[in-house]
Amino acid sequence: MPLTLPSILAIALYAGGAALLAAPLTGCPRSPRRLGLATATVAVLLHAAVLLGAHGGRLDLHFFAALSLVACVVAALTLLVNLSRPVAGLGVIVFPLAALLLALDVFLAPPTVPRPMDWQIQLHVVIALLAYSVLSIAAVLALLLAVQERALRARRPGMLVRALPPLTQTEALLFRLIGAGFALLTLTLLSGFLFIANIRAQHLVHTTVLSVVAWLIFGALLWGRWRHGWRGRSAVNLTLIGMAVLGLAFFGSKFVLEVILQRTMG
Transmembrane residues, as ranges (predicted)? Predict the structure, then answer.
């Protein structure tokens, strides 16, 4: 397989980048953060090249290909987030997952042929991909926020808590990501209603309904933050619930149809 070498290199670099970012968690006196981010950047570029080569430069929305694509975008956005807010913990979680999903797509998934799509559908897919990716990062950050808050309440801050930004900064970044993801999810739903002609024929009823439910959850969370100052455990729980619903919307039906029932989605 011609993509074996770049895939292995990307997987190794993802692992190396995560290990370098995790160094402060082991008490390393000098943080190799920049080297870790640079290593992960090369991994993301290789990952993107593998996706282009494996799927002919076209959007492939089959289950494993879509997972790998989302992982690549999430990893790239994680790098961007770290440019403005040094949250190394994000990379420690995201980059190994990106390596795993890339390996599944390249080495274990059956070969697939991308379906042709009009530009309107491609635009809808790109917006949906960005919405899912941004909210995925928010969900990972919510997990880190929960760990951080629990450790501070117990007055036992470990290496992980010391490596994270102050709690207020982490929380502010979380809601910025949720706000951006909510706006993109709104555009996703609007473009879907405008551009997708027959939702039922394309097995998208469950996806649409669950996406609307997730939109309502994230909308309620943002409203509660604005109106009542929701934070802490409430924010974490609603973020994770909303992301779980959105994950089912994006990949639940696809997994059942393509992996379990061996059918394709429209």
Answer: 6-23, 35-55, 61-80, 87-109, 121-147, 173-197, 203-223, 235-257
